[in-house]
Amino acid sequence: xxxxxxxxxxxxxxxxxxxxxxxxxxxxxxxxxxxxxxxxxxxxxxxxxxxxxxxxxxxxxxxxxxxxxxxxxxxxxxxxxxxxxxxxxxxxxxxxxxxxxxxxxxxxxxxxxxxxxxxxxxxxxxxxxxxxxxxxxxxxxxxxxxxxxxxxxxxxxxxxxxxxxxxxxxxxxxxxxxxxxxxxxxxxxxxxxxxxxxxxxxxxxxxxxxxxxxxxxxxxxxxxxxxxxxxxxxxxxxxxxxxxxxxxxxxxxxxxxxxxxxxxxxxxxxxxxxxxxxxxxxxxxxxxxxxxxxxxxxxxxxxxxxxxxxxxxxxxxxxxxxxxxxxxxxxxxxxxxxxxxxxxxxxxxxxxxxxxxxxxxxxxxxxxxxxxxxxxxxxxxxxxxxxxxxxxxxxxxxxxxxxxxxxxxxxxxxxxxxxxxxxxxxxxxxxxxxxxxxxxxxxxxxxxxxxxxxxxxxxxxxxxxxxxxxxxxxxxxxxxxxxxxxxxxxxxxxxxxxxxxxxxxxxxxxxxxxxxxxxxxxxxxxxxxxxxxxxxxxxxxxxxxxxxxxxxxxxxxx
Length: 558
Fold this sequence. Notes:
The protein is mainly α. It has two domains: 3-224, no CATH class; 242-507, no CATH class. It is built from 24 helices and three strands. The chain has a three-stranded mixed beta sheet, with helices on one face. β2 (349-352) and β3 form a beta hairpin. α4 (73-95) runs antiparallel to α10 and α11 (254-279) packs across α12.
């Protein structure tokens, strides 16, 4: 087959895959600027998952018939990306870990709704689609409940503390004033506002109440905290090993991830002690962590103080970027506060890519109860989530018009590359001189420690059988973050097995590739060119990243 024919067939498969993913998860489509799905909700049933898995397997067979070795350049990369996405998507659906993942974490069913609707801008032209989506939400909640109930009947029971946290969140939502409901506020001051209020009151809220009551019915037989991990669920050990491979790289075992985590935590404890001696006059790691957690002067006094600190950090980052990166014509990044409904169980911050031409990326920051939040953590978070982190990474990807849509927009499980880059840039920010003080460098160490602990506690719970409390204690003893954030983090890992291992594994891989290139090229090494190889091809599997860096080294040596 001629290369031109291969390219055409590959482009067709890439387009077919992307369209299928958007149809399977229409909540994601508007957030990526993909039209045609803003009126839809996902089908959360096991039957829908099985159909989609069958489609992916068939697509994978057609892709395998296109010999990758006969492709060159970006087409070869696309083949590798698509193969990884199809394989990981099919295996994720096979194991169905989300079927019983009841919680109040960011990946929970109700939060998929709350976030998707809050993060999708609606104008007068889009209001009819929005109202149609509201009317369809009962099908999503009823289907999600059936899925949880069917999983429980098979012995795949949710965790009791996860059910309790979901019930508390849903009770808070149902008790809130209708005028303060984010689903109503989305159409505020539009002609459709009253229709939206009526739908939320008479259709959406009753379906959420049914979902809440159904979850309550699962509570008595739910798993205790002593059985926090999926290793206590039928098929869980195999499913977790698969999840670790999907989120990091194929073949990386939970045991190896656990070992890497223990070694990394030990090294970070030494860094804490060293910086603590310089800045806080403390003697040991334990004294340093206690001082960081307990000093009230290290907390914020108001939410706007958090916003101002983040925006100031991003201004410094924007000014420093030209010395470390090529020039890219990308969208701006704005800062917004997480809605109070989701804030109690939301992470400290997260990022939303530009949703279409002319729209900015959004760095969402959690500002609820600012007096409990540490000043030193939010600079590192800002660099991770926006510039030079996820915003630069994902906004650059959107400019790569010559690439298929699947590579320009965040789809599927390229978690190690995506989150590895975010974590890499927290340390890069230190090289760039972006941290405003020695104190804010503690934020870099604190977040590093959280990500290193993830390797230990995620594998500890899901593979080694740790209890929820053992995981909480380990993270509390080895990080400087708050008790509330520790518990939110642990509950997130319980609900989303394996995902949290991607950050540190990905960062280690990117750093290793940089060192490999620097040693190979010597004086020819250009940090701008290296960073372009990492973020200038969209999100890729770690194996494909290795190929890209190898090709770049070969070219640069000529």
